[in-house]
Amino acid sequence: MQTVLFHSTIFGPINSRRLGVSLGVNLTPNDGKICTFDCLYCEAGFNAQGPGTTGFPPRENVARLLESRLKNMSEAGLPLDVITFSGNGEPTLHPDFSGVIDDTLRLRDKYYPNAKVSVLCNSTRLSSQSVCEALRKVDNNILKLDSAITPTMRAIDRPNSPDFTSERVIDQIAQFGEQCIVQTMFLRGHHDGVNIDNTTPDEVQALIEAYKKIHPKEVMIYSIDRKTPAENLEKVSKEELQSMAEKITSETGIKVQVA
Length: 259
Hints:
The chain has 259 residues and is of the alpha/beta class. Helix 2 packs parallel to helix 3. The strands form two sheets. Strands 1-2-3-4-5-6-9-11 form an eight-stranded mixed beta sheet. The protein contains seven helices and eleven strands. It starts with 9 loop residues before the first strand and ends with a strand. The radius of gyration is 18 Å and the shape is globular.
């Protein structure tokens, strides 16, 4: 079974294809996965592997470990473009997510004032006022929308909640407007006898209408880059992604980044 990627709270820096030189922060367990989605393409594996034993790292531990790494990097003269919250699950599930963000912004300003703070969020916790307030503070509030058509979204992302719909999450993302970046994973394939394809003309047009409603500052589109827990998925070519990006921009006026 494919298992979690990150075995520490702070990891990297790595060269992110979307964000540059990125220092990662994993707010979920180091030996298991906790997420409100169970995406077919998740590089950290399926939720079935379990939550592990380490639990959410305490806020004070996150701050201490982050400061140590930033201090060492700064003293060594190493570059840093972004501090990125991702890891082995959904970062906004951390019980003190808002406080961790405040600590991170303070440490960023102290050691790397020109670096950005990014959160890769699956958009499932946008009904929480404290989560939304924290997301508004970061430089790159990156919110997932893999399909504007609920059955397709549910087939790809497999949300834990039976009530989670594309229509609802589009409305919730729209509250941020230009304070967010929308991120969409494009793929094709099949899983458990179900065909999956969010690249069809109808799917792309539905996403375009959603992007218009949300009006984010940017849209990021990408496809599979590493091994996925569901084996029968197909990567969409860079050329096809670029063609979709041009269509999205021409119809919405929104900048699209292809990764």
